[in-house]
Design a protein that fits this description.
By secondary structure, the protein is an alpha/beta fold. About 35% of the residues lie in helices and about 20% in strands. The protein is built from 17 helices and 19 strands. It starts with a strand and ends in a 6-residue tail after the last helix. Bound molecules: ligand BES and zinc ion (2 copies).
């Protein structure tokens, strides 16, 4: 996909199709919306006719396509829903819906009438960003294992037309930035969608090395013997069952764009396959567990975007990568493992492996880099999906400023987060009789929060935010139809947009 900015009207840009939008009409509303006058003129009264025939209702997900009588171009009119509930997320979804409807229909280039999506409270800059997101993510296809593409839109032109004004520089910069972010999301999805036979811990390390080479980031990979020297007993225990795909810890360093910037560590759970291990999962729950590396892959995407956008803070990415499978060398329920910071974990369930891996990754990140803040992303608990569903990730944080910064970034990007509490009740529950903490509890309460209480033991008091992305990391054929059109079946790369936005807006000095 490409995104361009054109100063002309969408109707005069030479594209295969023009995209415009229309609000939902009331039951008794008959007057043709003035906002569609330009489209109607260019399409010789066809839009007005369709309105009169009540074909256009303006409901969300409604896509109406008009061919020009001369066969030269198409108008794609997408429903925006009720005007009173209009926001940037409506634009993001509408753009994706249009691009999806055009798949395989011979539309290669699309000109977007920016004015149609610039309506209070959405400014032209915010609308342009949302259009870039919607078209890039909506057009996304995972093509590695398919002979050919469905034929998605390849180029989006944001046509300024009557939005042409003095903020053109801001607008062009916004489109540039958002293109980098959307490309990073797509890049992340391509790795997160790889199956576990291919995307081994070593493969994730290779992806990090290649990224580092491309962007000039320092990348360090710790293999199993190095991890043993470092006393990373957690990653080694979880990864011990897989002889074919041994564990790795991967560190990427982006030096920061400001002279005395903050240091922010971003840590990801990278379980390349979660069978549950000895505490094996039932077959249906295992089906999507190649996506259990989504947090770590999102960290790669975040580092990519941060480096390309030259965000102010120094950013350290840490990936804890292991394959959780049963074998004679697997860790077992009852084992006690010693982690990087010296704390011991009583393993009661080998399927609660994410927190065991993150224990080492978090402890290493805070001890080695003394960050001002640490953010982790993990497909950590099934309980998160039960609590919040497939669109919203759980945010648990020990620091109100960090939490509200992430919530603000969430509101700006449309990746929903919901803050949940962390109390002494949860902290008590994870204490162990024979070690410092236990990785599972006999009573099924607040699974997402006890997991967070566990992780808190490994951040050494650093301001910390935990994003449990279990539900939002991927969509399945079952949940797909309830999701916005910019989430394809498979990996969503959730977290890349919100955390990148947070880093961009992060103050220059810590
Ligand atoms: N990777 C799973 C969590 C998960 C579930 C992610 C569904 C995505 C969708 C995690 O490792 C796990 O199995 N957690 C257990 C923890 C329990 C054994 C304490 C869970 O949530 O059931
Ligand atoms: Zn598990
Ligand atoms: Zn897992």
């Amino acid at each position: 996909m490409k995104a361009l900015v054109d100063r002309r009207e969408a109707t005069s840009a030479a594209s295969d199709a023009v995209l415009s939008g229309v609000f939902e009409r009331g039951e008794k509303e008959t007057a043709f919306p003035r906002t569609l006058a330009k489209e109607d003129a260019a399409w010789k009264g066809l839009v007005h006719a369709a309105w009169d025939h009540r074909e256009i209702k303006g409901k969300r997900r409604e896509v109406t396509v008009f061919h020009r009588p001369d066969g030269q171009s198409r108008l794609v009119l997408v429903g925006l829903g009720p005007r009173a509930r209009f926001d940037h997320e409506v634009v993001r979804r509408a753009a994706a819906e249009a691009v999806k409807a055009l798949k395989g229909k011979g539309v290669r280039t699309l000109a977007v009438r920016l004015a149609a999506f610039t309506q209070d409270p959405v400014t032209s800059e915010v609308a342009a960003r949302a259009v870039v997101d919607g078209t890039y993510l909506g057009a996304y296809e995972f093509l590695k294992y398919r002979a050919k593409s469905d034929g998605a839109v390849e180029e989006t032109t944001i046509a300024l037309g009557e939005e042409l004004g003095r903020d053109e520089t801001i607008l062009r910069k916004a489109v540039d930035e958002q293109r980098t972010i959307a490309e990073s999301v797509v890049w992340t999805r391509d790795i997160a969608n790889l199956p576990a036979d291919t995307a081994s811990p070593e493969r994730l390390a290779e992806e990090a090395r290649a990224l580092g080479k491309e962007l000039g980031l320092k990348v360090t990979v710790f293999d199993e013997s190095k991890l043993a020297e470092m006393h990373c007993g957690g990653i080694l225990a979880v990864g011990g069952g897989s002889t074919a795909h041994p564990p790795r810890m991967v560190v990427l360093e982006y030096p920061g764009g400001a002279r005395r910037g903050k240091t922010i560590a971003v840590v990801g759970k990278g379980i390349t396959f979660d069978s549950g291990g000895i505490s094996i999962k039932p077959a249906p729950s295992m089906a999507n567990m190649k996506f259990d590396k989504s947090g770590a892959v999102a960290v790669l995407g975040i580092l990519r975007a941060a480096a390309l956008l030259k965000v102010p803070p120094r950013v350290i990415g840490v990936l804890g990568c292991a394959e959780n499978v049963p074998s004679g060398t697997s860790y077992r329920p009852g084992d006690v493992v010693r982690t990087f910071n010296g704390k011991t974990i009583e393993v009661l369930n080998t399927d609660a492996e994410g927190r065991v891996v993150l224990a080492d990754a978090l402890a290493y990140a805070v001890a080695q880099y003394r960050p001002d803040e640490v953010i982790d992303l993990a497909t950590l608990t099934g309980a998160q999906v039960v609590a919040l569903g497939d669109d919203t990730a759980a945010l648990i944080s020990t620091d109100d400023r960090l939490a509200s910064g992430l919530l603000a970034a969430s509101a700006a990007t449309g990746e929903p987060l919901w803050r949940m509490p962390l109390t002494d009740f949860h902290r008590e529950l994870v204490k162990s009789e024979i070690g410092d903490v236990r990785n599972s509890i006999e009573i099924p309460v607040a699974g997402t929060l006890t997991a967070a209480a566990f992780l808190e033991n490994f951040v050494d008091g650093t301001p910390w935010a935990h994003l449990d992305i279990a539900g939002a990391a991927y969509t399945t054929p079952l949940t797909r139809k309830y999701q916005p059109a910019y989430q394809n079946i498979g990996a969503t790369a959730f977290g890349v947009r919100v955390v990148t936005r947070y880093l961009m807006d992060s103050p220059r000095s810590g």
